[in-house]
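In practice, a research group might receive sequence data for several interacting partners and want a quick structural hypothesis before committing to experiments. The following worked case mirrors that situation: the sequences arrive first, and a predicted assembly follows.
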Amino acid sequence: MSITSDILRGHTEAIILSHLLEQDSYGYQINKDIMKKTDNRCELKEATLYSAFRRLEQAGYICTYWGDETVGARRRYYSITDAGREAYQAYKRDWEEAKFTIDQLLK
Amino acid sequence: MKEKIRKHINELFKDAPKTRKAVELKEEMTQNVTEKYEDLIGEGCREEDAFQVAIGSIGDVTELFEDLKDRSLFLLSEAERKKKAVLTAAAVGIYLLAGVVLIVCLAVNDVYFMGSEMGGLMGLALTGLICIPPTCMLVYAANMYPVHNKKEENLVELYKEAAASGNREKAVRRSVCMLIWLVTLLLYFAISLKTWRWEVTWLVFLVGACAQMIEVLLYNLKHSGS
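A structural hypothesis for the assembly, expressed as tokens:
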């Protein structure tokens, strides 16, 4: 279990990018999607999520805008940039390669 | 209960740097935690349980504080460093040029005009004039501080920006001061060589000091006015 959470933490950025590929989203929505996809096995802490957002923003992979909710607090949406798409593809290739190698080694 | 969430997050951000980024992050986090809370209530959770679960999902926020700081405060940006280097190099170059001009002028004066007073004076004046721009450049470069960009718009940042513009003002003032003294020096030699009455001409320096005091006075007047 600790291996899973360690590996997941190392891939937070890629997981976020992957969610933004389909559509713009905000923190809680992304977290909800992650929970749904993993049958509630996995949930990111808010703090982990935000530090990943900031890193992605600094790298120019995502950009952000405030939603125009009229009731309650505003949501902060994130959207993936072209550089982000490229980074995601590169990341995906790396991951496939790593997965393949580890599978080879752990037989 | 929503107020309780807001309060809890405010408490977590107690030690965060007071920047706009921090305020935005707080707002974003409050919104997300509130939504999670509402979803839990919708699923039939008791208020207190929902609150605890929602709050528990925040995690350790102190690691985020580092990102919220403004790190560029004491560092010149790459462009500014380059500008400073170019200014300094150019200034030194012009000083060397001034030295060459002086030597050439004196040599030409000696050979072709038999060391006339007028010729020497012209050479000296020319050299002095050439020295003015590099001096101003050096003084400006030495006082160049990072000018703050307007990313953060709270009181702290406004203060920093004011401080940065104060530095620029200081740089300009020092340039003016150097200019006054250079002109004074130039006048001193010019008048002295022209009249050859060295016992009187040093009074020019008193005039220079007066000019500087007037400059200080004008500056203070301007500032007490604003």
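Before designing any experiment, note the following. Chain B is about 80% helix and 0% strand. Residues 2-69 of chain B form one domain.
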